[in-house]
Amino acid sequence: MFSTIAPAIALRRSAAELRRNGPRCHRGLLTLAIETSCDDTSVAIVEKTNTSTSSKAKIHFLENITADSRAHRGIHPILALESHQENLANLLNKALKSLPPTAKGQASICLADGSSRRKPNFISATRGPGMRSNLSVGLDTGKALSVAWQIPMVGVHHMQAHLLTPRLVSCLEAEENCTTTAAASAATPAFPFLSILVSGGHTILVHSKSLTEHRIMASSEDIAIGEALDKSAREIVPADVLAGAESTMYGKTLERFVFPNGAADFAEYRAPRDRGEEVAGMKRASARGGEALDADLSRDERVELGREIMRVCFEHLGSRTVIALEQLRLTAREEIGTLVVSGGVAANRFLMAVLRSFLDERGFGRVRVVAPPPYLCTDNAAMVGWAGIEMFEAGWETDFSVRALRKWTLDSEAGDGGVLGPGGWVKRDVLNLKV
User: Which domains does the chain have, with CATH numbers?
Assistant: First the structure.
């Protein structure tokens, strides 16, 4: 009796594991990804390969074109939309040449030069949140490609893509080290983990239990930190320096101005040991800021003011992160092992130093802080492609009827239901996945 039942139980367990974690196939999943949520037009080709020992990823193509709105000293919605319309098709045409060659038994597409390339398994396109008209350019283009090539599509949640980016990076590193024992057995960090998503449009602290189960523990009520730094930069950075900025991400210009020597300029930084010391530091910074108003500041005074503004912003993030970790420890009996920092401001080295010092000073020294490399911190299609792959592996596709979403929370308990809340999702049996 036992010998008959045991294999059936094992089979059911294997099926359940596949439904939770996705298939473990030897052939790769290939996606063409599109990102147009704001002012970056981005296209990527991302591939993931699962074997019995590792998960590896490769970015075959990634290119961004950012709308030039420096004349307006900030993002201009109409210019951004026109930039998407002008550049997306050309980027896609260029990307097709980077599709992998077709292997035996794989579906292919024929390019204008007569060469044959591997057809993607599905399309990934950002569905929201973001500027609705801009999102629609990429989403509708993704639908058209899906129809033309007769392949599925995944409408990706932009913020979910940001928080999953370190998992892409871990698999990229596994690909680079595939001949050594450093190859990872799975994408990391593993769930659960805590994320700070910090950019010009968002400042969110997220507790992620699974691919689609997220809880927002804190968020900005008025202005995102990235936008605050951009606006501060426009007032603090000398006009000649600001004029040389490559884009309207002036927070990056501010960082270079106040920390010209990089990490050496904040090597002595130490986070406040407790809340009292933290509040005292904020009061000092407020007093200095008041003195600086309407003053004819010297270059050195501008540097000092810029450093203080960054310190206060980043210490506020560090403080809220510690509160969230303490709350999870006390109420949920959950010890978080990884803090993910993603979004455009995650490229700021001073931010990473502040967070590391806060965790060490407040009793969370064992928590690992991870952030993508700078080119994957800002909006990009590679992160969209990776999020699409993770959702596709979990059995999720998107109906062609979906429309762009200007607002779309991550929180599973919010009114819109989080990642899986909006209509248009189609659940596929992952056991029948064809790759």
Answer: 23-186+377-432 (3.30.420.40), 193-375 (3.30.420.40)
